[in-house]
Specification:
Layout (H helix, E strand, L loop, with lengths): L2 E4 L7 H12 L4 E4 L4 E6 L3 H11 L8 E3 L3 H5 L6 H10 L4 E6 L15 E5 L4 H10 L3 E5 L12 H8 L5 E4 L9 E4 L10 E4 L13
Parallel strand pairs: 1-8, 2-8, 4-6, 5-9
Antiparallel strand pairs: 2-3, 3-7, 4-7, 5-6, 9-10
Helix pairs in contact: 1-5
């Protein structure tokens, strides 16, 4: 049965987040709030947890998972970033954007896209998630919490617990999220002299980044 942590959205209780971080270290999958919607997260280096995360979501290995990073410096350790890409990332992070970038060797091969060797990365702004990432001391592998067969993410922590209490280790309840997905921008072509490609328009405004997408 999933543990249930009720935390303050802007001043989360550290002792509860420490318990949640310990569950991640033990191979658990957590449902957590983000600045776009609730998400499922697990330890980056835990293959079994990553496989379970995909099964819960009902996606295969061709579905891009995302690395949630605490800051831009951490993001750059897991993706190949040139000067043009870095300037854009610096403008957009933290924020409601997910960027597709070429994965470095720091990313386990099983977690990058099997054909393109790319990974989705983002730096969130939700205070609870930022504190959890700091306690975890590394990025978390994540996917939006959309149940199999559904098109919209779940946004109610109690409903999440009811539906997934036997599949996740814990639910962190910090109230309702914005319930709008991130804007997804593919920057891989940019690393070879090309332009960014808008994959999905969401909460982040690409025009605000100076992109005519």
């Amino acid at each position: 049965m999933a543990q249930y942590f009720e935390v303050h959205p802007t001043n989360p209780q550290l002792r509860l987040l420490k318990q949640a971080a310990a569950l991640l270290d033990g191979g658990g999958i957590l449902a957590v709030p983000t600045d776009s919607s609730y998400a499922l997260v697990c330890h980056l280096d835990d293959k079994a947890a990553a496989d379970r995360l995909r099964r819960i979501r009902g996606v295969d290995d061709k579905h891009h998972l995302t690395l949630l990073c605490h800051d831009l410096g951490e993001l750059a350790a897991y993706a190949r970033v040139d000067n043009r890409q870095y300037r854009l990332l610096k403008m957009a992070t933290p924020g409601p954007y997910t960027f597709i970038l070429e994965a470095t060797r720091e990313v386990p091969r099983r977690l990058s896209h099997p054909q393109r060797k790319t990974i989705g990365l983002r730096v969130p702004t939700h205070r609870v998630l930022i504190e959890l990432l700091a306690l975890h001391a590394g990025p978390l592998l994540a996917t939006t919490l959309i149940p199999p067969g559904a098109t919209e993410p779940l946004n109610d922590a109690e409903e999440i617990r009811s539906r997934f209490e036997h599949q996740v280790a814990a639910v962190i309840d910090a109230g309702a999220c914005a319930s709008r997905p991130t804007t997804v921008i593919d920057l891989t072509a940019m690393g070879h002299g090309g332009d960014p490609v808008l994959i999905r328009r969401g909460a982040g405004d690409p025009v605000g980044l100076g992109l005519a997408l």
